[in-house]
Design brief:
Blueprint lengths: L1 H28 L3 H12 L3 E9 L3 E12 L8 E13 L2 H4 L3 E15 L23 H7 L10 E2 L1 E12 L5 E12 L7 E9 L2 E9 L2 H4 L7 E9 L2 E9 L8 E9 L3 H6 L11 E10 L2 E11 L2 E11 L8 E12 H8 L29 E13 L2 E13 L2 E11 L2 E12 L2 E14 H8 L6 E16 L2 H6 L2 E8 L2 E4 H7 L13 E14 L2 E11 L2 E10 L4 E8 L13 E6 L2 E6 L4 H9 L8 H8 L9
Parallel strand pairs: 4-5, 4-6, 16-17
Antiparallel strand pairs: 1-2, 2-3, 3-4, 6-7, 7-8, 8-9, 9-10, 10-11, 11-12, 12-13, 13-14, 14-15, 15-16, 17-18, 18-19, 19-20, 20-21, 21-22, 22-23, 22-24, 23-25, 24-25, 25-26, 26-27, 27-28, 28-29, 29-30
């Protein structure tokens, strides 16, 4: 009996070994492509092609697959969403039983993946029976579930993996493509308790990029998101280097990111290229550091410090909120500069093809583009301050500007700065006007010292002291840049002086005081008030009224001018009963080019007499200027 049992057991063992061997040989030579293809098609709801799929049993189960493709959605921009030339991998057989799975010698060759949103905002990475149906916006609960990090507690161990000659492209709903080329990517770790490393050689939008990263062991990866996963990375592209040190709670989706980053480049060529700015730009030196974070749709760069060209950023805070379901992204920036040099930033601010090049950055002339796209993406809101602002030859202090770009419009609710001791504030907006823009602005200047203003303007000394205040309402149509708007602006302005002094001889000369024949007037006389109102249309304008009241007399004037021709026509006269007994009060006319005007008696011509009559009229002012002018004593007509 015992003998029969042993023989039977031995026979069964031999049979099982034979069956196992036969199965082993069968599996080793079997092509599983026909078996796997329909099952993948049913799960994905897409056409799937697998040229060959082989499994080789052993202590390390070997998988080889060739010529794999997954079809795109019906409205996709190309037939195949993904293609793969070859996939090879080895999996420790016992790890499939006891876990977690352990893999080695993974090789992915010539993978090409297109992840896109169609013009109808369908995402091609959604699979299943209803993948081509429009999807309503997700509820807050659905959004929270979608943003939940994946469970990595059973993440496989990976000893080594290589990706060769591959690419991944993201295509937005408006057709913009962002392509990452993976020439060679290597992952490696000696065990699940040793550091996990990655090296990448490739390109982003055809700009070469090299990345090296060292991450915490894979055992620490399995503890996410409860415990953030630490990593350091070093990125180089051309002359640009960038470093990141921080943590991630969702490493597979590059989410839950917190860390410190630096960016240094003497030319910014790589940054321009990655951003799709392929025109000829002068070099831009950049050296910035700050704290970077990313969570869901929220990208944040805070505590930014460093230099951009010759500008020094002391504190920057940038937030990008990704738009969803066809909505644009939203960017908010709050930036504090010590010195902001617009001239040096023109390679960034000037559009591609504008004046200046890498070879001749000195030829750049600062001129800001004032165009408002109908559908801006992103929408931009910024609050910028600077202790010093340099623009062309102008040097300002204590800048503060708030602005927002929305469809077809840029609003500037606040602009405030100091200039040669004066305080300037403004507000306005820019609106789309076909292919150009129309602009409206209100400007106020206070405490403008006359002597400092005339020196900046390059004028000769004037015998007047005091400070002026201005109010300006300006508009410009069919313009493209700031300098163009300034030269073509239509404006109404009022200038006022409440306190000051003027040389007495100027008042007596203007009133033709006979005493000047026998003596030279000395000293100054206080200015009671000064008021001038200017109206200008593209460099051609009128100043009326122009009144000056002093203790020695009152002078009224009117001026017509043409800045384009550098021509003026000025009539002035002292008002009777305001001057001394010896004043003749003869009106004078000064007319001609700025550099060579002629002098005559105003009443000798009809034009002169008409200008004299106008000089005592009060111009109809816009409501925004009426209160400013009415508070001035010179607003009241003289006798």
């Amino acid at each position: 009996m015992l003998r029969w049992f042993l023989v039977s057991l031995l026979s069964l063992t031999v049979l099982l070994l034979a069956l196992l061997g036969a199965g082993w040989i069968w599996i080793d030579h079997r092509d599983f492509a026909a078996f796997a293809t329909p099952r993948l098609e049913k799960k994905l709801g897409r056409t799937v092609h697998i040229g060959a799929l082989h499994v080789h049993p052993g202590a390390w189960l070997t998988i080889d697959a060739d010529d794999i493709s997954v079809a795109n959605i019906t409205s996709g921009s190309r037939p195949q969403m993904m293609t793969l030339s070859h996939l090879g991998a080895q999996i420790r057989l016992t790890s499939l039983i006891w876990g977690p799975p352990e893999a080695r010698n993974i090789v992915i060759s010539k993978f090409s993946g297109l992840f896109e949103r169609t013009p109808a905002h369908l995402a091609n990475w959604r699979f299943g029976p209803h993948q081509n149906d429009p999807r309503p916006p997700m509820s807050p609960e659905q959004q929270a579930k979608a943003n939940t990090p994946p469970d990595l507690h059973d993440a496989p161990g990976l000893r080594n993996a290589t990706i060769l000659d591959s690419d991944v492209t993201y295509r937005s709903a408006n057709g913009a493509s962002y392509k990452t080329t993976l020439t060679k990517v290597e992952f490696a770790s000696s065990s699940d308790n040793s550091p996990f490393t990655m090296t990448l050689t490739g390109a982003y939008n055809e700009t070469p990029v090299t990345i090296s990263a060292e991450m915490e062991p894979l055992n620490d990866l399995r503890k996410t998101p409860e415990r953030p996963y630490g990593t350091t990375a070093h990125v180089t592209s051309g002359d640009m280097t960038s470093d990141f040190t921080g943590t991630l709670t969702d490493p597979l989706n590059f989410d839950g990111v917190e860390g410190h980053t630096t960016v240094t480049t003497p030319s910014s060529d790589a940054l321009f290229s990655m951003a799709g700015m392929t025109g000829d730009h002068a070099p831009v030196k950049l050296d910035l550091s700050g704290d970077f974070s990313h969570s869901g749709n929220d990208w944040h760069f805070s505590k930014a410090r460093g230099t951009i060209q010759t500008s020094t950023m002391q504190d920057g805070d940038f937030t990008l909120i990704e738009g969803s379901h066809g909505k644009p992204d939203d960017v908010t920036a709050k930036i504090g500069f010590g010195r902001l040099d617009i001239n040096g930033l023109m390679p960034i601010l000037a559009p591609s093809g504008s004046r200046g090049s890498k070879k001749s950055p000195s030829t750049l002339h600062a001129d800001l583009v004032l165009l408002t796209p109908p559908d801006p993406d992103p929408l931009v809101h910024f609050d910028l301050s600077a202790r010093q602002l340099v623009y062309n030859k102008l040097d300002f202090t204590n800048l503060r500007i708030q602005a927002a770009q929305i469809p077809n419009r840029i609003d500037v609710p606040l602009l405030r700065l100091g200039y040669i001791g004066a305080s300037l504030s403004a507000n306005g907006h820019i609106e789309a006007d076909g292919p150009s823009s129309r602009i409206a602005a209100e400007v106020a200047l206070t405490h403008g010292d006359i002597d400092r203003l005339r020196r900046v303007a390059g004028l000769a000394p004037v015998p007047v002291k005091g400070s002026l205040s201005f109010r300006v309402i300006a508009s410009a149509n069919r313009v493209h840049t700031l300098n163009e708007a300034m030269s073509r602006a239509n404006m109404t302005a009022a200038v006022s002086m409440e306190k000051g002094e003027i040389a007495r001889e100027i008042v007596e000369a203007a009133s033709m005081d006979l005493r000047l024949l026998f003596r030279h007037a000395k000293g100054v006389t206080p200015i009671t008030c000064l008021l001038g109102v200017l109206q200008m249309n593209q460099g051609v304008g009128t100043v009326v009224p122009l009144r000056l009241r002093t203790g020695a007399g009152t002078i009224a004037a009117k001026a017509n001018f043409n800045l384009n021709r550098r021509w003026l026509d000025l009539v002035f006269a002292s008002r009777p009963f305001s001057t001394s007994f010896f004043a003749l009060d003869v009106p004078i006319r000064v007319s001609g080019r700025f550099d060579a005007p002629s002098l005559s008696l105003a009443k000798w011509s009809k034009e002169g007499r008409n200008m004299l009559a106008d000089s005592n009229e009060v111009t109809n002012l816009p409501p925004a200027l009426q209160g400013f002018a009415a508070s001035n004593a010179c607003a009241r007509p003289t006798r």
